[in-house]
Amino acid sequence: MTNWQIISGGVTAPRGYRAAGIAAGLKPSGLPDLALIYSEVEAIAAGVFTTSQVRAACVDYCRQHLSTKHSAHAILCNAGQANAATGSQGWIDAIESAQMLAQILNISSDSILLASTGVIGQRIKMDALRDGIPKLVAAASETGGDAAAQAIVTTDLVTKSIALETTFGDRPVRIGGMAKGSGMIHPNMATMLAFVTCDAAVAPSLWQKMVSRAADQSFNQITVDGDTSTNDTLIALANGESRTPAITEMGPDAEKLEAMLTEVCQYLAKAIARDGEGATCLIEVQVTGASDEKAARQVAKTVVGSSLVKSAVFGHDPNWGRIAAAAGRSGVLFDQEHLRIQLGDFLLMENGQPLPFDRAAASAYLKQAAAASAKEVLSTDSSNDLMQVESGEPVAFSRPASPTDFKDQTVAIALSIGNGSGSGVAWGCDLSYDYVKINAEYTT
Amino acid sequence: MTNWQIISGGVTAPRGYRAAGIAAGLKPSGLPDLALIYSEVEAIAAGVFTTSQVRAACVDYCRQHLSTKHSAHAILCNAGQANAATGSQGWIDAIESAQMLAQILNISSDSILLASTGVIGQRIKMDALRDGIPKLVAAASETGGDAAAQAIVTTDLVTKSIALETTFGDRPVRIGGMAKGSGMIHPNMATMLAFVTCDAAVAPSLWQKMVSRAADQSFNQITVDGDTSTNDTLIALANGESRTPAITEMGPDAEKLEAMLTEVCQYLAKAIARDGEGATCLIEVQVTGASDEKAARQVAKTVVGSSLVKSAVFGHDPNWGRIAAAAGRSGVLFDQEHLRIQLGDFLLMENGQPLPFDRAAASAYLKQAAAASAKEVLSTDSSNDLMQVESGEPVAFSRPASPTDFKDQTVAIALSIGNGSGSGVAWGCDLSYDYVKINAEYTT
Asked: How far away is chain A from the Cα of B435, in angstroms, using its nearest Cα?
């Protein structure tokens, strides 16, 4: 299904999209903090949002919008203040933001979608937003994808964006995406945001189904610390500007589009996990032999989220007992006599029986993933902007939409729990001193 | 309902029990590692065990035993090897352990219950066990409760034991208890074990119900790192040696006994949370206004288990947004406009609206709990044995069955999520550098 190629441009790679990212004065650091994605025509829109009962105003706004209208023209995203747990004033601010942008774009305010990330309990700095929106609209361009990807990060160490291209008949169809992860060097900061643009023509309900399924196999399968944010948002637009035939039901074209969409989402999801707070490597857990995919995904996510497994990986300790214990408590029923555990190429348990293995070599395997990851974070493309910050905020540097699958930076754990056909994958990162430092050492 | 008093003696405080703890050579450190609790008469027995699909042999053994026979004479517990994920050989070792002890005690082997804690994937050192069991039986005495409490710990910093006494008519009725928490300075070590002795006469099915309910309000409401162990075990014996009338159904006597049992379990549960790996304080989360008790307990446990909340407490950061976010993702439905959050005496949010508060004073409140806890850990009773260890293992020192409710060492978080009558409490600890250090820095 990999009949596509990686192209540059991020969310502005598909036809008919413009984007911008500017510094509007919302972040104390002065870094870019306001982003716009704009489709020249009203695009089909689908969304997946946090399941939390404590939600940001923008999340409620988007859900309400998408429950009645399955299209949108523009997405406005601010970083700095999450506008979550801000009471009724937060809702008023959200409405005003949408109305301001709509007026300047000369479109209906019900064509605007919103997202926010930053400190929970803080309203958006509305004065700065009012000044910033006209500048943001003026800055929007067909090459603005990278700037937008930079303006949505908070404490991410790298920006996350990608674009893929395939052909339908003889015409190109593209999907672009950008995301931010939950970094919390500044306390309270926490959100996963992802935005996907596509120039295919797809029926609204089919697009929503594709987006939901892709989210289940990507963003919903990553965990950094188990804390679901108040603002988690995935919005995906499809504007039809590829001028390819409309896809209205499942079939070869739909499957091809969904596979490419899933690839974009999985790339962004892995990039978020890899850049988790304090992470030294990416952990990938593959589960097979489950009764169904849901069960497999649940086991995988439990193992990758286990503090003990994460600590062991950080300590380069091939501690398979913790993997077995985490699988056991996942809530999925299985017979422990069928349990098989593999770490990289090392088979550690089969049929529930522990096996002898080369402990030093397994530890070296864990070390190598961290070493490769360190190299990756440090080796920036010198042609990209390196954005140094004044006041203790992290260095954010842009990256090309990387073709890497993170393979050399990945600790691969494979479990089989039985003879079922269900399989699933989850991604996470290790638990390091820096995670605690990032989340505790800030003193108010 | 507090018509009882604290007495000394731990699990040997109730009548008709003997206990022992010896160093049998199971732990590399040479510390006590084998414990026995013995009732002079066959006692009613109830148990609550890990829900994990990956279970220690002793857990399967006890469950099988208690599903057919609701009484027992003795509990044998070893520390050092968890005998979990040890395949069929683990089961053979468990059976042999029970048979050996039964032979020396001259009782039937189906009167023995078993528990293990230590490294997952390691069999019990059977040679050491075979040598140890006769010495253990010889050492058993009516004052052996403290020795037994010391022999079940692994990396706990303090032993955990308590005994309460009340009267039924003019006769004393006592409940004793001891527990160990999950400390993992030696990797793979993880288990919560708790043993309760009682000299009341109770019908088996009623006793099991009381024990299950007490566990739900105590051990099932604590979390250190969210990782349920393969060996978690609570066993409660009731031998009738108080010679008080048999309690066969709910009523004033049963309620009194259950309240005392719950108090014992809650004390031990709080002691485990307080002594969580790397913990600097105890965190108590009270939830009210839920639709029912189960929902309230779920919210409380989610908040107390949040890595972000735990990190914030460690950093003395009154970061209420993380409390709101954790409650929101607990899976319990509520309207965020009803959310009320209090930290100690500081009201931080009401009706979903953030309130201004004295941030410095709230941070000082968090500091004070950690300071009080540090003092508590260091101030040992000099009349007790202080057990120094040779090789990097932690200092384990015994303590009197402490009358403290840990109040000054507790960070109290109170949430109200609506107008329902459901309330619940959960306990945990903060997330510190030492947690990561304890679980990562051991290099194999």
From this structure: 9
